[in-house]
Amino acid sequence: MEPVLTARLGRADSRSIASYLADGGYGALKKVLGGWTPEQLTEEVKKSGLRGRGGAGFPTGVKWGFIPKDTRGKPVYLLCNADESEPGTFKDRLLMERDPHQVIEGIILSAYAIKCRDAYIYIRGEFYDGARVLNAAIEEAYAKGFLGERILGSTYSLDLTVHRGAGAYICGEETGLIESLEGKRGQPRIKPPFPAVSGVFSCPTIVNNVETLACVVHIVNRGADWFAKIGRNEKNTGPKLYCLSGHVNRPGVYEAAIGLPLKELIFGDAYGRGMKNGRRVKAVIPGGASANMLTAPEIEDCPLDFDGVAAKGSMLGSAAIIVMNEDTCIVNAAQNLSKFFSHESCGQCTPCREGTPWLYRVLTRIEEGSGRLEDVELLERICNQMANGMTICVFADAAIAPPLSSVQKFRDEYRYHVENKRCLVGAKAALVTA
Amino acid sequence: MSANPAPPMGPAPAPPPPKDTVKVIFDGRAVEVPKNLNLIEAARLAGIDIPHFCFHPRLSVVGQCRMCLVEIEGIPKIQAACTTPLREGLSVKTTSEKVRSSRAATMEFLLINHPLDCPICDQAGECTLQDNSFGYGNQLSRYDERKRQYPTFDRTMIGPHVIADMTRCIQCTRCIRFCQEIAGTGELTFLDRGGRTLVWTHDGKPLANDWSGCAADVCPVGALTVREFRFRSRVWYLKKTPSVCPGCNVGCNLSIESKDNVVYRFLPRLNPDVNDYWLCDHGRFLSESLNLRDIDKATARSGDRVEPVSVPAAIERTAREIRAAADAGGPSALFFLGSAHLSNEENFLLRKIADHLGCPNRDAIVDKGRERRMKARSEWVAGDDAAPNHRGAKEMGMTPGRAGHGLEALLAGRATPEVVIVADAGFSTIAEDPVRVAALRRARFLAVAARTSNALTRAADLVLPAASLSEKEGTFTNLQGRVQIFERAYLPKPPVRAHWELLLGLAIALGFGDRSWTPSDLRAQIAREVEGYGRVTEAELAGGELLKKGDFAWKGAP
Questions:
Q1: B541 CA to chain A: closest CA distance, Å?
Q2: Which of B9, B62, B365, B439 is the residue whose CA sits 20 to 30 A from A58?
Q3: CATH number corresponding to A17-229
Q4: Closest to A395 (Cα-Cα) out of A124, A176, A164, A84
């Protein structure tokens, strides 16, 4: 597939509005403002089958349709979720830093579809560069009349503001993001009400991922049918960015039609070009830290789309593929990820606040050679009593994915760790005190 | 055919009356409950206890503690009861195995980092965590790690009254929400996140609002405790007696908690119309003042000597002096001073004595203090009297009668009665002012009833030992006109007697009244004789529901 979202990234001045316009940029906006109704645009996005690229994979057009017909005088907000904090994910950053106008055009189009007058980009605090680039691009767009009052002479007006987060994973969760944007502690809200009914400032709100919004530009430009034809089946459509990291020869962001086989991504010449030093694959995390690990046999025929990965008992999530080779200590990997989750839990719900550090401590104990046989079972039981409705948001469900899936799939390795006080693989020097 | 058929002809049928109840099915049993309730409250109405920590009926619902988990028909995942809106036909399972194990999971998570040192925790006995651990906790802990510590955030005073110990905190945020939503001051907040989350004050600013004790009240565990009560008594030794706050004329409902004739603390009693679940610090910390007493016997002055006398003899002498003065100079030679600190019954009895003698010289005054505000269920109530019952004293008739004079005339020297009877030596700060006491002292005979000494008792000819609020029964009328009863927590130590007993003794000595009269007989007389007091209902008299720290009572529909 020829690149769509990443088509312009190679250009020297890809950030500037001049080069974007030269490549036909803001054409989609002109097309829509030239006579499309917001409903028409929403319908087009529905038809394209575009599913949210942030992680949940919810159909974007359907989400837009949840905005109440009568908002009782309340304004509608569009929030661009640029918090990209899932470990292993770095695709939105690329889009924002290298082709900001594509993102901005996507935001303007989507804002038009939901009749929003004020949109925000909530960008991860650490993305200082991204915020700088976006702000410069927004200034250019205002100067050219793509933002502000009466865009391109139409009756539509939109203001766009970049808001930098303060560095919290949980602010990528849409209600946590909304709380943070309101200036409060980043804590997810109780749902319902869902943001489409009552979101930021208690107004109807749509939160969309950067990549999702960028896709809207191309749906308008080339049509929903073109978009829907890309991909494995009609439920998984469009181009997709994959973030490949770990023990592969060529890690990076790759664009492909959604449904790219996982093996192709790792071994294909256009992609990862195989495992580093010819080692074998031990485990793959297909969708960021929150996704269950897959074993080498499980990656054999795994199409990288929402339903394909779900069929393997994991999830595509933010499409962050983390590959681990046979020298990886799986206990160490789970411990590492658990540390992240225990650090990032917002702390409002008891099971998550208390469970994530507990998991980390048990894993640390096993990793350091002072684990006990019952610890392996204990890990599973802690995980099972943290998730599935035990908490307000799905952070806890994400936090248990690495330890639970690794215990279930690599139980022998955990056993070995406990019994021999060292790793099964020689990757990490074991702590042998006996 | 049109998609939208025209409305049928004729007058539109009257809409059905809006139903304000819904049918909820608890474990298969249908119960009709008011629809504006939270599911936890609705369950309580149905007699089902759903354990919880963060839910409080007057605070916003946050669904954070995850203790109130229930199964809702049609939803596969376990749900928090507090965040589930009531609707017709809602079917709730509160006793299934999944519910039990989920609650047990939350309990385990809460306990892994909670110190298990209840024997040295001041909350023990009224701790929701302790109670729920009996229901859902495990005997053995699977947590083998070092428990979380909060160096420098343990046992620290975060305000003038509240001591915080974050090692005991379960992060339910009730205190934070109280300060934000009820007090409106927002001193408390969450700091840090995840397992390191703690509740503390913003930028070191103290928790010093007018209701800071309530932040400790709503705390379900021993994380916030009140300095004045901390470690003074185990709560299960304390007797709760319904009473009314003596601090101002709002008349907050409270319970006196006492043991061995000592008052240990005040806790609010739930009364949605007056103080709801709250009590201000001013009133709360008056509890200690009830234990003050330096007048424990009757004394009589002769010249510069002060001699103890028996209470009956003192009453007899007072009656003699009154008679002598009345015989010599008529009833206007007498003056009777009631008090806004005394009950309706006592002021009523004093007025009856004055009436019996035909004396129009009587009064009851009140000091004005700072305005005290209290958040009732739906409005703020504010009072600025420094005593609870000025309205009642006046309505009982303790105001100058026809051709009579009041206290002002006495103090200004426009009237100099022969005999002055002060029913409560602590009636006002006037009693501590030597100049104005000297004006009262111009009387030939000055008798007072008192608990603590002041300039007035030192100047008096006769001092009678009188009971404290906790040692007697009576009613106060608050600024809303609400007549509320306070009960006796314990008997005064003889020869101390309740004011009404002393006054009844005096009445009998003067030739009227009946030795068998009790405050409730006096209330019956008040109901017959005083306008507006005939319609006081038993429920109004009884006031609010007893509470314990960290818990809430349930009373009718909100």
A1: 41
A2: B62
A3: 3.40.50.11540
A4: A176
